[in-house]
Design goal:
With 147 residues, the protein is of the alpha+beta class. The chain contains seven helices and four strands.
């Protein structure tokens, strides 16, 4: 399960994948599924910032966020920094991220804990992906209604 959450630990989008799927390639599909409807107007699809851990630090993810004018709050991996420094001046500038916003990235972990409060999701009783995803959406709706 790959998901995005707002700062109040409410799920914004959920993408279900096989257990061995890596995190970084699922970043863009998760971001593309974000739709938040306000009291009036079209649904918002572009958050102000996207915080993630080092697993999401890739050129493709950063380019996607730049293209959509979303602030990236993702630290650089040590091996990426070493490769950049090895290239010297051609390696470019180091990526910066807002450390205060980065402290709030645990909202996704807390959102996952809220989802797993429902025993059916925590123990994975639902054997088919469709029924499991339906349970995730149902639990997400309950979380949104309680806030």
């Amino acid at each position: 399960m790959h998901l995005s959450a707002d700062r109040r630990c409410r799920p914004l989008s959920i993408v279900l994948t096989p257990g061995q799927a890596a995190d970084s390639p699922r970043f863009i599909p998760v971001m593309d599924k974000i739709r938040v409807r306000g009291p009036v107007g079209r649904p918002r699809t572009r958050p102000r910032a996207a915080a993630g851990d080092k697993a999401y630090s890739s050129r493709a993810n950063r380019a996607y966020l730049r293209r959509r004018h979303i602030k990236a709050v993702i630290p650089e991996k040590a091996d990426q920094a070493a490769n950049r420094k090895k290239k010297g001046p051609r390696g470019g500038r180091p990526v910066g991220h807002d450390t205060e916003l980065y402290k709030d990235r645990n909202t996704v972990e807390r959102c996952i804990n809220k989802l797993k409060e429902w025993r059916g999701l925590a123990t994975r009783y639902d054997k088919t992906p469709d029924s499991y995803q339906a349970g995730l959406h149902l639990r997400g709706c309950v979380i949104w209604l309680r806030c």
